Amino acid sequence: MDALLSAGLYIVATPIGNLGDMTPRGAEILRGVAAIACEDTRVTGKLLHHLGIKARMIRYDDHAGDNARDGLLALAAKQAVALVSDAGTPLISDPGYKLVREARARGIPVTSLPGASAAIVALTLSGLPCDRFLFAGFLPSKDKARRDALAALQAVPTTLIFYETSPRLTDALAAIGEVLPGREVAVARELTKTFEECRTGSPTDLIAHYTAHPPKGEIVLIVAPSTNETTGEVDADALLRAALATQKPSQAAAEVARVTGMDRKALYVRALELK
Ligand code: SAM
Questions:
Q1: 124 CA distance to ligand 1 centroid (A)?
Q2: Looking at the domain that runs over 118-231, which CATH code has it been given?
Q3: Whose CA is nearest to atom 20 of ligand 1?
Q4: How crowded is residue 71: how many other Cβ atoms within 10 Å of its Cβ?
Q5: pLDDT (tens digit per residue) in 193-227
Q6: What is the pTM of this model?
Q7: Most CB within 10 Å of its CB: which of 25, 96, 174, 254?
């Protein structure tokens, strides 16, 4: 295979739990490259062992510095180099963005081999609208920053997708319940693994369930668009209430005016009423 692979960077998706989800084409590429850039050589080593592949691994993340990136790109200019992450599709809340950007800038061929990504698996499983969605990565871990991030997404009229960790699940659900009221939420957990589950409901119901049954493992949160937003109406009161949770009435009105294009003075009067 080695001789058949032309030089360049090969982005290879790997399974998010079930090793059977490794694609045959992805495995063949990993078998044929001169080196595999990976986040953690132990994690990728286990996958390679499962696939019966012996390959040179080079640890890489986007904080690795220009020298490490230069070295990998110099190799990719002459030989085939794969990029993988610990699980799922590289670059999606994982390293690789700077490497791919720089490879393209240098004219190094880049190709991407599709496979699992937890965001898409969770979205398709959730039963929530899939026609339009916004993937927002991880929410901040600090409460105020998390609420601000959610408030900034309030006017987005699509399904929202977040990556989460089990210790932060109930805090994230509480913030969603307050900042994005009235939305249906899905908690997709341990996808493709033995204890896969996808539970939908209101944030209050889900908090009650996961307080009684503390969750383990990896989680994707899917938040349905609000009913008003789905029909194209802007729920100014909901936006104002969310903004008022962290801002003064004048700031809240200015923020809502900015995202909706509505009159700032009228919003300020309404913000004082709601306060
Ligand atoms: N690049 C990966 C992808 O394409 O899905 C995501 C990497 S990100 C560092 C890890 C996060 O993805 C986890 O915290 C979790 O939110 C989500 N995730 C990964 N595997 C998962 C799984 N099997 N079940 C549920 N969520 C998962």
A1: 15
A2: 3.30.950.10
A3: 16
A4: 15
A5: 999 999 999 999 999 999 999 999 999 999 999 98
A6: 0.83
A7: 96
